[in-house]
TrEMBL record:
This is Bifunctional NAD(P)H-hydrate repair enzyme. Coiled coil: none annotated. One of its GO terms (molecular function) is metal ion binding. Pfam families: Carb_kinase, YjeF_N. Homotetramer. Its cofactor is Mg(2+); K(+). CDD domains: YXKO-related. Belongs to the NnrE/AIBP family. Residues 221-491 form the YjeF C-terminal domain. HAMAP family: NADHX_dehydratase, NADHX_epimerase. It comes from Rhizobium deserti.
Length: 491
């Protein structure tokens, strides 16, 4: 359980609840502030020992209090420290205490960056909900232009801790020290690119309080689902590892299905069959060996196949074509585990509720894998809502569709109908290549075929997809990625 806890994310409002519950439990807020400020000072000394001066920007709230404690600790260590504060008052004096005379204090507007400064940003942290004041926006520009190292306390000021977007303007940190758990804004883009290296510090909030507050949102990691991955055993049989069917498009559009099929085979499905229309049979037959081939042209033929074959899971969409045939085939699979990708998703853009209604029964067994454009076709109201984070959009979409959602992008979010959601962070930049989504669909299909629940199959496959890309290396093609789809987890 403890290993799970370190991956969990807390929204700013949840963090505020955790602070309040901690105080109610008998732990003083002053103790939390002291531990946080001391940790910031230690990080500053450890990672920025070259500083000629530590400049601490202190805001009016608890984030500012952390900054005052950090300034005191730095002065106690013999460093040169200057505090620039938004609201000069008794709080700063109390927290600086005997070291006040060794610390220069001035209004925030008076700060002028100079070479040798290391800036400690303790203005707002994660709780900000409105655009930063003009004074802070000007400081963001000044410090950015001076290219000074910046250590952010909790979150770079101006960055929304819930959505990961700048509120008017936001600092770009070299390093961020946050407390207990990260916020969604640390991992969602563009927030992730503004935080630099993230250090998580335990300031003494009891784990039971964190567990009682979290919504089940986390950074995607094997600790969360690794125990559900199939492990081959000596009594294994291909049918026990599931039969995956991948639907091919017409002649001239068959490559995507074959990529999915190869990835499914590599990811451990016992058998994989490409279900092909008649006009694509010859081109598919010429390119398949270990993967089987079966001709499927109509919904009637598909139904007959479903009635007679031991088929465990399906992938429909890569290169399939948009239209009535995709809708018919998808709806025939409404009681089967299905990965609906690409053209399969777009085929329901005129009537998404038809799809959602069909898969509304039983445990979730539909996985939707939309990129930004496809997400907006199925969920236009959610896509256009700028007040929601990408994570919140994915969670609401999963609940509406009764499906696991893989909302793709550089900050892919995987969400379940029950409200759980993971943000993926391990994908290398070269994963953004043509055909990589087809490979991901096949990997998810393989885990579904082996009996892994839909949400965990999706989350595991997204993570393993990133690991496969690392194994394939820079300059990889989708074919290289598919060849590495069976990558094993370290340890």
């Amino acid at each position: 359980m403890k290993s799970h806890l370190k991956h969990m994310l807390l929204t700013p409002s949840e963090m505020a609840k955790a602070d309040a519950a901690t105080v109610d439990s008998g732990i003083a807020l002053a103790d939390l502030v002291e531990r946080a400020g001391q940790a910031v000072a230690a990080s500053a000394l450890r990672h920025f020992p070259q500083a000629l001066r530590y400049v601490v920007l202190c805001g009016p709230g608890n984030n500012g209090k952390d900054g005052y404690v950090a300034a005191r600790a730095l002065a106690q260590a013999g460093a040169s420290v200057a505090v620039y504060e938004m609201n000069e008052g008794q709080i700063g004096k109390d927290l600086l205490r005997a070291e006040e005379d060794a610390i220069s204090r001035a209004p925030l507007a008076g700060y002028q960056p100079r070479q040798g400064d290391v800036v400690i940003d303790a203005l707002f942290g994660a709780g900000l909900t409105r655009d930063v004041p003009d004074l802070v926006a000007e400081l963001v520009n000044k410090i950015g232009e001076a290219a000074l190292p910046l250590l952010a306390v909790d979150l770079p000021s101006g960055l929304c801790g819930r959505r990961g977007v700048p509120l008017g303007a936001a600092f770009k940190a070299t390093r961020t020290v946050t407390f207990m758990n990260r916020k969604p804004g640390h991992l969602l883009l563009p927030g992730r690119s503004l935080c630099g290296d993230i250090e998580i510090v335990d300031i003494g909030i009891p784990a039971r309080i964190i567990r009682s507050i979290t919504e089940g949102w986390a950074e995607n990691h094997p600790d969360l689902w690794g125990h559900l991955l199939p492990v081959p055993d000596e009594n294994g049989h291909k049918y026990r590892r599931g039969h995956l069917a991948v639907f091919s498009g017409p002649a001239g559009r068959t490559g995507a299905a074959r990529l999915s099929a190869l990835a499914g085979l590599k990811r451990g499905a016992g058998l994989v069959t490409v279900a092909s229309p008649a006009d694509a049979m010859s081109v598919n037959a010429a390119s398949l060996t270990a993967i089987m081939l079966h001709q499927i042209d109509t919904a009637q033929v598909l139904q007959s196949w479903l009635d007679s074959a031991k088929l465990a899971a399906f992938v429909l969409g890569p290169g399939f074509g948009i239209g009535e045939k995709a809708r018919q085939f998808s709806l025939l699979l409404k009681v089967r585990p299905l990965v609906l990708d690409a053209d399969g998703i777009t085929s329901f853009r005129e009537n998404p509720s038809e799809l959602f209604s069909a898969f509304s029964g039983g445990d979730p067994h539909l996985v939707l894998t939309p990129h930004e454009g496809e997400f907006s076709r199925l969920f236009p109201d959610l896509a256009g809502n700028t007040e929601l984070s990408k994570l919140e959009k994915a969670v609401r979409a999963a609940e509406r569709a009764h499906a696991a959602i893989v909302y793709k992008g550089a900050d892919t979010v995987i969400a379940a109908p029950d409200g759980r959601a993971y943000i993926n962070t391990n994908a290398p930049p070269w994963l953004a290549t043509a055909g990589s989504g087809d490979v991901l669909a096949g990997m998810i299909g393989a885990l579904l075929a082996q009996g892994v629940p839909a949400f965990e199959a999706a989350a595991a496959s997204v993570y393993l997809h990133g690991e496969a890309a690392k194994a394939a290396g820079r300059g990889m093609t989708a074919e290289d990625l598919a060849a590495h789809a069976g990558v094993e987890l370290d340890g």
